[in-house]
User: Fold this.
Amino acid sequence: MTDLIAGQTVEILLTREKIEARVCELAAEIARDYRGRAPHLVGVLKGAWVFMADLIRQLDFDLTVDFLGISSYGVGAQSSGKIKITKDLDVSIEGRDILIVEDILDTGRTFKFLQDMLSVQQPRSLRLVTLLDKTSRRVVPVHADYVGFEISDVFVVGYGLDFNQRYRQLPDLRVLRSQPSV
Ligand code: PRP
Assistant:
């Protein structure tokens, strides 16, 4: 892993052990609320898939999964504010208990967009679990129902999160301070 991050300032923000422990706690909360309801978990690509893979393996009750492809950041570290769907849902969510799975809640624009888009399909319920929550960056007044960690306004990579599609495979969450040229 050191080759990947050579020359960058990438201090560890959250170790894999700390993430693993928190994912187990989140799973326990979700199990308490959803056991017996066969929820439909919708992971938001691409950032959420590592978190989603770990989370669902801690959930020992009936559920189904799907993915939505959303892109809200342009090239670089700043949000463009533009949202594009790159993969739609495979099945109807009407009458289902939907739990959106996100890696990070930042400005809130993406979740607001998803709330508006998915509520038209009349799910029974619609909630959000996010591994990371940057509340200080919020532009749209939305909140997550389950939050792994609230973090300050730093640019994080690893555990599914990227900078220009790189670093997603790092097992720990790291702060990228000096951004590489693209
Ligand atoms: C990230 C994250 C959320 C969104 C949150 O996705 O996965 O979907 O940004 O930001 P917001 O609250 O400001 O809308 P990103 O666009 O980086 O794409 P990726 O998941 O493919 O890395």
